[in-house]
Amino acid sequence: MSSLEQPLVSVVIPCYNHEKFVMDCIQSVIDQTYQNIELIIIDDGSKDSSVDKIKEMLEKCQHRFTHFEFRYRPNRGLSATLNEALEWCKGDYFSAIASDDSILKNKIEEQINFYQKNQDLSIVGVFGGVNFIDDENKIININIQKKVKKINFEEVFFHDYYLLAPTQLLKTQAIKDVGCYVNGVVIEDWYMWLKLLEKGDFYEIPLILSNYRMHSSNTIKNLEKMHSGRFEVLSFFKNHKFYKKAYENVLFLNAFEELKHRKDNRLKVIFNIIKKLKIYFFLRVFLKLGKRFF
């Protein structure tokens, strides 16, 4: 397939304070074997030298991509940044990549091939495996499926299956059809995946497609943000028939993470869980924790 016959893919890099990593992220998009790509980079008010690092890549980007945009302005948050990018996106497919992650050379080509070979299916998202890397780009773990897996709404709603954000390639029109992202929502990807899974199907292919960076700093701070963010997303699905179970599972997941990372104060964590739960919820959650953690 020539580049003229290829569907256009919109790649969006939202950047915030990733001066150490953003050039590698951009280069990974430049290096894609798939040709028909538009790249949109928005710096969301970085306080470091991220903008200067991006500017070093401008000439390469202007020569490489079908369409290229770079904007920087005061901080508005990730969801607002993605929505801003979506206003410019002309591609049939949408791939958002955090500026501290990167993608392997064949990522987009493999995903477009999967879409095109399965046009009879109602696919709205294709994912893949990742290398988990540290701040020095060392691979610390790998996550990959052995075969193609179809992913349903309940698995994602209940946190029974974790999608790997840097690998996503979503249908742009499907995102716009569900109203795009909600400004201010912390876990914007989980929200979007649930909205899309109400309309179509996700598949994960058995290939490593991205490098997913794991940061070691601010673990507790990030946990607190993540915990409140999960309840925020659930609030959009209060009328769903599985809401009660999903709510219970989030309580369990948050409690497990609290116990795992606050080893010096487990009794206080358990007491706080009791205050938040009805007693029958607590008994069920505590039994799960006992089997999984102690």
Unreliable spans: none
Distance between the termini: 55 Å
The structural class is alpha/beta
Give the CA-based shape.
globular
Residues in helices, as a percent range? 40-55%
Whole-number mean pLDDT: 89
* Count of individual helical segments: 12
Count the E strands.
Answer: 10
Based on CA atoms alone, the radius of gyration comes out at 20 Å
Residue share in β-strands? 15-25%
How would a textbook summarize the main sheet?
Answer: 10 strands, mixed
| Helix and strand element order | EHEHHEHEEHEEEHEHHEHHHH
Describe this structure in words.
Helices cover 43% and strands 21% of the residues. It is globular. It has 294 residues and is an alpha/beta fold. Helix 1 links the parallel strand 1 (9-15) and strand 2. Helix 10 (243-261) crosses helix 12 (279-292). It is built from 12 helices and 10 strands.
